[in-house]
Design goal:
The chain is mostly helical and about 90 residues long. The protein contains three helices and no strands.
């Protein structure tokens, strides 16, 4: 079956979509320069926080809040993981 003629509007939109796809392929996706150091810092601060909590027998880094220190440490690590998903 022969292909019917496309309207001008449809042809223009298809050409525009093709051009957009070509531009997307040409751009190189890079992470911002601050992302990797902040991500690694969050991982290390979270790890350090948890280690200090265990080594000090639950007295530090913030005395008086008890096991909430674990949540703070894991929160730093979670922020590091969320930043890791944006790293390209």
């Amino acid at each position: 079956m022969p292909k019917s003629k496309l309207r001008k509007k449809v042809q223009q939109s298809q050409a525009h979509e093709t051009q957009l796809h070509m531009e997307e392929e040409n751009t190189v996706l890079e992470s911002p320069s601050w992302l990797a150091p902040v991500m690694v810092t969050n991982f290390l601060v979270g790890l350090f926080w948890i280690v200090v909590f265990y080594v000090s027998q639950t007295q530090y880094p913030i005395p008086g809040i008890g096991a909430w220190n674990m949540i703070i440490g894991f929160s730093f690590i979670a922020v590091g993981f969320s930043l890791a998903t944006k790293w390209k």
